[in-house]
What does this fold into?
Amino acid sequence: MKKKSYTDWAYFDSLTDDEIDILPTTEEDLARAVLRMPRSPKVRVPVTVSLDIEVLTWFKSQSKDYQVNINNVLRIYMETRKTSVSECK
It folds into this structure.
């Protein structure tokens, strides 16, 4: 991280699961949930990218289509940042 973290990680690591407040998920929450599946692009470009071995191993363990899944995760990240493809060029 480039920015200094003001989080007290030692305190956070010392907490037990019971001490961490997590709001329960209700049926109403689940009913409002939306599965976001990115659209399939018409053009794909082969690239070489270096990934942490744990990341690659996890994606490979999820599906034979792990490369598509990695692309989907990156697309959702891009879309949540509201960065258009034209802004990247």
Remarks:
- The helical segments are 9-14, 27-32, 53-62, 66-80, 85-88.
- The mean pLDDT is 84.
